[in-house]
Specification:
The strands form 3 sheets. The protein has a 10-stranded mixed beta sheet, with helices on both faces. A 4-stranded antiparallel beta sheet has the order 13-14-15-16, with helices on one face. The chain is of the alpha/beta class. The radius of gyration is 23 Å and the shape is globular. The N and C termini lie far apart (69 Å). α5 runs parallel beside α11 and α6 packs parallel to α9. The protein has one domain: 3-Layer(aba) Sandwich (Alkaline Phosphatase, subunit A), CATH 3.40.720.10. The chain has 15 helices and 16 strands. The structure holds calcium ion (CA). Calcium ion binds next to loops.
Length: 517
Amino acid sequence: MKHIILSLLVTVLVAPAVHADDRPNILFIFSDDHAAHAISAYGSKINKTPNIDRIAKDGMLFRNCFCENSLCAPSRATILTGKMSHLNGIYMNGSETFDGSQETFPKLMQKAGYQTAFVGKWHLVSDPTGFNYWSILVGQGTYYNPMLITNGDKEKHNGYTTDIITDLTLDWLKNKRDPNKPFIMMYQHKAPHRPWEPDPKHFHLYENETIPEPENLFDDYKNRADAAREQKQMITDLNDKDTKLVAPPDLGPKQRKAWDDFYGPMNQKFEEEHLTGDALIRWKYQRYIKDYLRCIASMDDNIGRVLDYLDQSGLAKNTIVIYSSDQGFFLGDHGYFDKRFMYEESLRMPLIVKWPGVTKPGSENHDLVQNIDYAETFLDIAGAKIPDDMQGRSLVPLLKGQTPSDWRKSIYYHYYELPSPHMTHRHYGIRTDRYKLIDYYDDKQWELFDLQKDPHEMHSVYDDPNYKRIQDDLKAELKELQEKYKDTNPDVPNSVLRAKDKEKEKKPQAEQQKTNE
Ligand code: CA
């Protein structure tokens, strides 16, 4: 009897220690508005991202990862909660305050013995909860000399924000964490969000090149719903701040000199040329895309610094590295910039995961996955219980190369932010591996795309008799998804949102600009 009690005691004492030591760390690298088609691992035709590609080379690249509401704050709230906008309360940017008392994966990981840290763009108005360490940009943040709030204390930093976020991340990894506990570090860039202000170090990148234009830069929006045409997110809508005809107010003297030396002569030439029509669109596209890619170049360099540190410190052996972005972005596709629409370029999130010993190097996954799956995946990795009311599913089996036979066959999407700043109409929809059905419900208009025949979504086949059966099936499936995800009455949130829209219209323009974009 004594012997049995002793052996039980040994088991109880030894088991938790083994459990805690074995679990991998997670480095979650997250950016803002980085389209998959501006990553060379995804086949970009316009730039190279050698360090993000390093993660793909050793890991798994997801070809079909999608957001459920293509906007900054909503995507972040979804990742924290594993729930869609109508359940986590963040429908739009800057209009709602994230309720930090709700259940989130970082809190559950802390309970499971993980250290949790967050550095960079937070954008959810309330202070982070569930993090042992956090250092966040104020609101949307700035590209130069940013103000950061670290565990409650505000401090101004000098330099380029992408470098500073990386410095703070490395400082926590090297000096601040407890080396005896596994961690999740959420290393979250502001880049490459509007207004795409590069590090002076990268000003001259692409200077004498012409970046290829997308085929549909001059889209005529024929054969689409009115919403495709009735928006304000076209290359022609880029303002003087976006195109660098005016300098940002937050530059230091040295930065300002570099800025004037670089943009000054080009701006003078532009003023003299008096471009109009297609020539002006082409000029704006080049100005926009080059600055966007320069911001990505800085981010990629900095990601390289962190990957190098993981390698040199030995942490790489037991650290899962993930690269993702909150949604996609239009890079002149359909004549647009920004995101919002359920069209492919905006809907798709890059997702690349390197898990040493688990993900097959250089592998690809084509299953339909979403940002509702991230929280469940982190919890699964930590060995923590996944709450029943989270709406996604752990990606761990997929990362092992074993897709469950009952994996989802369609994804759900719902976009809300109207009118400002881009007048993009509200819509929801369903995407399968081949088709996409979108309901612009305020307009009573639909779009249906056959992505196999029309990958750029230029011709809606809604009400085409050849697609009658598919259309009916998709409508039925859309309804099923709305029931499954408990989004059965869009008029309830919409009436609340419309009241908020009215409030927003009363705010001064400058204040709107800060919170909305
Ligand atoms: Ca974003």
